[in-house]
Design brief:
The protein contains 5 helices and 7 strands. The chain is an alpha+beta fold.
Length: 164
């Protein structure tokens, strides 16, 4: 009876998760991240260790897209979080937090080169995983987003995009 009560309490705190070990892991590793939207409004969320910023934004229905995009079929994380576009570009507000993150790899840097409003503390949300060292992280969403993907390029040249 006691175990069932504890599991029900954990389930109500974590959501509809049915794996007890996953529920316990999420409760024991609560972290906080704040997204600053394009209007300057802050949105703070409790998240679990290992969650990435793209997944957090999607699960919280945050609109990461900017006011203008290159493609009309734009969607947040257009590449599915595979580091093949720049639609989940975020700007880390604190240099100290940025410095605690692992260095962006070559693929991420290639995609960041396509991002609108690139800064010294820009990252792709799909590549930033939350951990205790990032508890309290604040990221700003850029005012615009370009939906350029690796698939838009062939042989180093931009492919023509046909309007529909």
């Amino acid at each position: 009876m006691g175990t069932l009560l504890l599991l029900n309490q954990m389930k109500s705190e974590v959501g509809s998760c049915t794996e007890p070990w996953l529920m316990a892991n999420k409760i024991n590793h609560r972290l906080h991240v704040t997204f600053i939207d394009k209007e300057g409004k802050e949105h703070t969320f409790e998240v679990a260790k290992g969650d990435n910023l793209l997944d957090i934004a999607q699960s919280e229905d945050l609109e990461m897209e900017g006011k203008q995009t290159l493609h009309s079929d734009y969607s947040l994380g257009a590449c599915g979080g595979s580091c093949a576009c720049s639609t989940c570009h975020v700007i880390v507000e604190s240099q100290d937090f940025y410095d605690t993150m692992s260095e962006p790899d070559d693929d991420e840097n290639d995609m960041l080169d396509l991002a609108f409003g690139l800064t010294e503390t820009s990252r792709l949300g799909c590549q930033v995983k939350m951990g205790p060292e990032l508890d309290g992280l604040k990221v700003r969403l850029p005012s615009m987003t370009r939906n350029l993907q690796k698939s838009d390029f062939e042989g180093g040249k931009k492919k023509e995009v046909q309007a529909s």
